[in-house]
């Protein structure tokens, strides 16, 4: 049978069947509220995870295993030292490729500061060598020492390396976000198990009568399961919408690197939070079903 | 339909009923009497597997009660209409829905059944009270509603525990007539009652066996009844 039609039938339900269990306003409101609050938190945890994900991506792209060597030397020696550096690099294990930036490239780099007409060749500005390392990377300290010996004007600037711990932190943060979502789901399940358990306990008399007139466990369980699933679904939908609005309203600064201002969803990631109500409903369905069958199994 | 063989039951360590042997044959009509506290209700509860025998065997529709799953028991109960001594309603649902409850829980509430429901509610004289909640009913009204609920499913067996305990003589006779009618349609009927006048009235209409519980045993009652 088609899953969608089954789901629709489950949602529509049998209004008669629903009425056999008396409405329990209090536990109903608690369930809706908790599901809503949990969904709200889950949306934030999701935003956190996805933001950390983007950040880690961006930073590890930027890492891209490049570094630069800056050679500052009198113009007369510059060419020789550049050669020396390139030779050292050629013999260094862990270096994939290296090349000196051309005058044009250097000019482009400096243009924002000095304008387009800078006579690079005539100025004592340092020469830049771009180093691309292999996946294993090179030994920065060893390279530094050999450069000092071969080309005293050369300074290894592995400026992007400081970001490595940040990428690790971002990865950790992403993991933390998913763990939080897992915990939120687990506590939703625990809360709904408790609420369903108390609803079942409060309705023992009803269950007894239903059994006396020939109701099967499945029928009795369904009355409770449907109820709690729909409550969790509606609460979680409200919480998710509220959470998405809250995330959308967070101030966004232009600086993409700043972490807090990057907390949000971008593009298709906006679809992710929509899974929260579904997850909440599925969780409620199983939590109530298991609680119901356990209770019914215990009652003779 | 329902068979007990050397069945025994005790709530604690002391056996309350023992050596109970009885066969409720299809279409039979039984009365069950005995002093208060003798175990009539207990005996009926064994008959619809609300209690399981502590000794011997109880069989419902050829199935050993002790070996039945809860689903099996539910299915058997859909074929057994029970008038409980304490009635057992869902207090939050109106009388009409309580009477229809066996249909509801077995998913059999159709248009035809709804028409039957109307008729039945009229039959037990509860038309004016159909929308009331059970706690608002008098004792006799509750018993009539319980009887209506017991027969709504067109069950094979009807077990009635003091169905006329709280109603006047005229209503007692009406309810009895309903049960006799059902018996004539082939239903197996067992009525537990103190009311000897009711048993005499019934004997004029139907050939009924009268059983007496006493001293933990079940006997066929003498011809004095
Ligand atoms: N759940 C129970 N736990 C312990 N003892 C019980 C229980 N139910 C009934 N009894 C005892 O078992 C005995 C038989 O009870 P039962 O209800 O079967 O009697 P009865 O013949 O139906 O009486 P009545 O005519 O007053 O309805 C009584 O002494 C009663 O106190
Ligand atoms: Mg009794």
Automatic annotation (TrEMBL), chain B:
Source species, domain of life: Bacteria
UniProt keyword ATP-binding present: yes
Occurrences of domain ABC transporter (ranges): 2-225
Name listed for the protein in its UniProt record: ATP-binding cassette domain-containing protein
Keyword check for ATP-binding: yes
InterPro entries: AAA+_ATPase (IPR003593), ABC_transporter-like_ATP-bd (IPR003439), ABC_transporter-like_CS (IPR017871), ABC_transpr_LolD-like (IPR015854), P-loop_NTPase (IPR027417)
Organism: Rhodophyticola porphyridii
Gene Ontology, cellular component aspect: plasma membrane
Matches recorded under Gene3D superfamilies: P-loop containing nucleotide triphosphate hydrolases (3.40.50.300)
GO molecular function: ATP binding; ATP hydrolysis activity; transmembrane transporter activity
Taxonomic lineage: Bacteria, Pseudomonadati, Pseudomonadota, Alphaproteobacteria, Rhodobacterales
UniProt-listed SUPFAM superfamilies: P-loop containing nucleoside triphosphate hydrolases
Keywords on record: ATP-binding, Nucleotide-binding
